[in-house]
Design brief:
Mean pLDDT of chain B: 92
Strand content of chain B: over 45%
Low-confidence stretches of chain A: none
Order of helices and strands of chain B: EEEEEEEEEEE
Radius of gyration of chain A: 14 Å
Strand content of chain A: over 45%
Number of strands of chain A: 12
Oligomer: heterodimer
Distance between the termini of chain B: 36 Å
Largest sheet of chain A: 6 strands, mixed
Distance between the termini of chain A: 41 Å
Chain lengths: ~120, ~110
């Protein structure tokens, strides 16, 4: 079965530090990849997505992610974090086969940014 | 105003009672989903429906039931058979290919 691994459970950074959150998945076929963010007290919302084409995708609020097929990875990055980036971040994967619309989520990473 | 609504925001029940969580969407999405979110466990899929009058079990369907009689609505019933029902429940709807999902605000269920 498909699985998604997110390597750290809790990341603590100071403002202006660079961020990289790891995500690896197990499926060997074609995938759609997503990063979702859940700010405190808010809905889970889409941060960015990869379907095809340029493996470097840009999302909202200065986030970007790079799909590396050979490493089964889709790591999230931001050059300089802000206090408002404090949130929980989830990586999710959809296997592009048949009409299966399921997403498999990782366990999430809590990011705390110190002002 | 388009979106997904879940009600109520907080729900309290006694052990042994069934409880139904509401999820409505006006995004005209064909697919709808129910997830359970527990601390440190991410989102786990309970049930999903890709079309009206059809639904499939997710990874943790035991103790839950759903119906999909209308495109806009996908209620989840947490039955007394669910061993650990206290959790945060998230409903989502999605578009076909590439299956991007949009989430509601969630219902926090506490069973004592």
């Amino acid at each position: 079965a498909q699985s998604v691994s997110q390597h750290n459970h809790h990341v603590i950074l100071s403002e202006a530090a660079s961020l990289e959150l790891g995500c690896n998945y197990s499926y060997g076929g074609t995938v759609n990849l997503f990063w979702y963010v859940q700010y405190p007290g808010q809905h889970l919302q889409l941060l960015l997505k990869y379907f095809s084409g340029d493996p470097l995708v840009k999302g909202i609020k200065g986030f970007e992610a790079e799909f590396i097929k050979s490493k089964f990875s889709f790591n999230l990055r931001k050059p300089s974090v802000q206090w408002s980036d404090t949130a929980e971040y989830f990586c999710a994967v959809n296997e592009v086969s048949g009409a299966n619309s399921k997403l498999t989520f990782g366990k999430g990473i809590t990011l705390s940014v110190r002002p | 105003d388009g979106g997904i609504t879940q009600s109520p925001k907080y729900l309290f029940r006694k052990e042994g009672q069934n409880v139904t969580l509401s999820c409505e969407q006006n995004l005209n999405h064909d697919a709808m989903y129910w997830y359970r979110q527990d601390p440190g466990q991410g989102l786990r899929l309970i049930y999903y429906s890709q079309i009206v009058n059809d639904f499939q079990k997710g990874d943790i369907a035991e103790g839950y039931s759903v119906s999909r009689e209308k495109k806009e609505s996908f209620p989840l019933t947490v039955t007394s058979a669910q061993k650990n029902p206290t959790a945060f429940y998230l409903c989502a709807s999605g578009i076909a290919r590439p299956y991007e999902q949009y989430f509601g605000p969630g219902t926090r269920l506490t069973v004592t």
